[in-house]
Sequence to fold (502 residues):
Amino acid sequence: MNTIAADRRAERTYSTTQRADRLEARAGALLSDCRRAFHAFGELDELAENLRILSLNAELAAGRAGDKGRAVRALTQYTRELVNRLAQIQGEMNGLRTQTYALSSNILLGLLRLHLFERAADLVNDGSHPPSAMRNVNRAFAETMTAMVDTLDSMAVAVEDLARRAHGVEEVVSQSDSIATNIAIEAAAAGVHEKEFRTVSDTMRRYVDDLRKMIDEASECVRRAFEKAESLRRIGLDSLLGISHHQLTR
Amino acid sequence: MKCETLFRSGDHRWLVFGQDPDRPANVIDTNQYVICNGANAMMLDPGGLEVFPPMMASLTHEVALEEIRAIFLSHQDPDIGSSLPLWRRICPPDVKIYLSTLWSGFLSHFDRGAQFTTIPDEGMEVLLGSDLRLRFIPAHYLHSSGNFNVYDPAARILFSGDLGAALIPESARTGTMFVTDFNAHIPFMDGFHRRWMGSTRARDAWLAAVSKLDIDILAPQHGLLFQGDDVKRFLDWLAGLDIGSGVAAMQR
Ligand SMILES: [Fe+2]
Ligand SMILES: [Fe+2]
Fold:
């Protein structure tokens, strides 16, 4: 008799625990991917500022070159617009970061509560408690999990937003790249100003490379974060489906 | 978690829950109390987050969650009520939460959705069910600046919160919930009262108010309960204690 009771308990424990554990492991990974993405984007400020200073210097050089610098001047003005775009993306990213961290803390708090409800469910599910106790704790777990799934939905939207910003930076990178190429072409025809323009185009290409490295790293983190947010949502939904109507109303 | 009935008269009951054998060693032990009057129950200091699972399991052996009408929080500490957001999820949605007017904005840090019924500094009287009168008695500055005890004149029990609390090492536990040898118990509460309790004036005012009450059991939130003559022994001991010991550290 005792053995049967112990086995049944073990079975029940297996079915009720580990939902929060599974969520927790993935949530931890999701949050660290988001943190890494924001960390990578953190260099955006400095790179944009470097690009801005470079465009100002290039414009001065273009002025000194007179007619021969006209095309370069137009290119540097275009560079300045790109820099403004980067600043705008950076601003949006700051808002997104605040939002993502607020969602993360909700996820962590939700996990803590899920763990505690899960432990309570295991203790109550020993055959000696009235069914209403299990029903109550299951309902509380389900409500908390529903809120968690909602938060994960918002998190997925935030990560998607982040991916859009990353794409915006990628566009700036490829446009800056073609500006650098065009300046190099102009340099070849600039006579005594060739060296000065070539320095501008080389420096610009270096910044573009840095930006590309940054955005590759950030995009990879965003991609991984997105996958994890999606899989977390699925685990949350599965676990809600696992708490049957029967368990909530019995 | 252990549960003992402290008082029973018809369907008027006092229950104490505590001394959970599975409690992690670094989590300070707490006593949780439940007063029942028929199908109406009030929890006193439901405890911290860590205590929630065993407390919920132990409580539901005795009381249906639907019967919990009120939760009383003596003060703002995490061991008192950081479990509040969890209890609110499993108790009836209109459960009343009593708390000092000083702390409602602070406790919202634990649970921003909670609606508190605030207790004024003078305390108040509430009705549990149709006929059980309970008194929230001020115990400010002992140790919290907005702090209340609960007195049940019919059961002659005073829930004294951190007053009377003792920190008892595992090795000194005997399995009982009551003090059995007052002198032997002093070392476990001495340091706590000297350091946590700060105001001599508040202590004297509390002693003056409480000594007018008819008390069979003095029930603290930590450690063992006092009954019979030990209640007076505790009050006399506290009256002579040099409290506010933390001040010395500022005078170096
Ligand atoms: Fe306290
Ligand atoms: Fe306490």
